[in-house]
Amino acid sequence: MRVATFNINGIGARLPALLQWLEETQPDVACLQELKAPQEKFPEAAINDAGYGAIWHGQKSWNGVAILARGSTPQEVGRGLPGDPEDAQSRYIEAMVGELMVCCLYLPNGNPAPGPKFDYKLQWFERLIARGAELVDAQRPVIMAGDYNVMPTELDVYKPERWVDDALFRPETRAAFATLVGQGWTDALRRMHPGEKIYTFWDYFRNAFGRDAGLRIDHLLLNPALAPALRRAEVDRTVRGREKPSDHAPTWVELDI
After folding, report:
1. How many Cβ atoms from other residues are within 10 Å of residue 245's Cβ?
2. Catalytic positions, please?
3. 147 carries a ligand binding annotation
4. What span, in angstroms and rounded, lies between the C-alpha atoms of 114 and 165?
5. Count of C-beta atoms within a 10 Å radius of residue 193
6. Residue 7, marked binder
7. Buried-most residue among 115, 128, 170, 175 (CB within 10 A)?
8. Does 49 carry a binding-site annotation?
């Protein structure tokens, strides 16, 4: 079973690229972030024609998350991250795909830091940690996949010294991610590529992709019930090099389930 996460950076503009990638790689589950489309503008028909069922949580111009399943429709079990009923941003959705529980998330960027946006990021992270604590020991397999907007270590950023004051790399952000993973989650990409510089995001500016000046900010975390099934974890970086791409590349795991 292949489960992927892909920050599409605007599903309207990137729909052809998304459909091409789905046809080429045929992931069993695809978690999408940054749809940048209201609920009614999600291209459900095109996704269905590609062989996928979908659930999504849209938002006009910003944010938005979706879970796609090949040959079936994900069974939604949660919409919105628990802990703040006033939070109107579309950043989290949960579903069952067969026996697998899939949590798709788009964690806030948080810049400029310090400031209100950074405060929101850390508060959102605390809510994710609380949800993670509820799910990590579940008897069922659980994956939390998405754009976490955090580089966990210096190995995950091309020039660490340039990012020390950025919300994605500040000590508070990295500590929050370490707390989450420390509950017992497996960082799949790092488990399969220890010590390797492997990126999932390259900025549009200054030829970042050509220079491989990237960041690893898209993560797939597996709970202990799922971690033994991990067989591969990779990044489809060629997708980032195509015409009019997202600034992220699809990141995926293969699971023996």
Report:
1. 18
2. 106, 147, 248
3. yes
4. 9
5. 15
6. yes
7. 128
8. no
Q: Let me know: does 132 contact 75? Beta carbons within 8 Å.
A: no
β-bridge partners, 56: 66
Residues 6 or more apart from 232 whose CB is under 8 A from it? 192, 253, 254
CA distances from 254 to 111, 188, 212 (A): 33, 10, 25
| Structural domains in the chain, sorted by start | 2-255 (3.60.10.10)
Name the token pair of 93: 């959705």
- How far apart are alpha carbons 111 and 257 in whole angstroms? 39
Q: 251-255 and 92-97: which strand pairing?
A: unpaired
DSSP 152: -
Amino acid found at 87: D
Cβ–Cβ under 8 Å, residues 219 and 208: no
Q: Using alpha carbons, select from 192, 195, 213, 217 the residue that is nearest to residue 204.
A: 213
The count of other CB atoms within 10 Å of the CB of residue 138 is: 13
Query: Is residue 248 part of an annotated ligand binding site?
Result: yes
- Full pLDDT tens readout for the chain, 257 residues: 999 999 999 999 999 999 999 999 999 999 999 999 999 999 999 999 999 999 999 999 999 999 999 999 999 999 999 999 999 999 999 999 999 999 999 999 999 999 999 999 999 999 999 999 999 999 999 999 999 999 999 999 999 999 999 999 999 999 999 999 999 999 999 999 999 999 999 999 999 999 999 999 999 999 999 999 999 999 999 999 999 999 999 999 999 99
What is the C-alpha separation between 124 and 109, in angstroms, rounded? 11
d(C-alpha 163, C-alpha 154), whole Å: 10
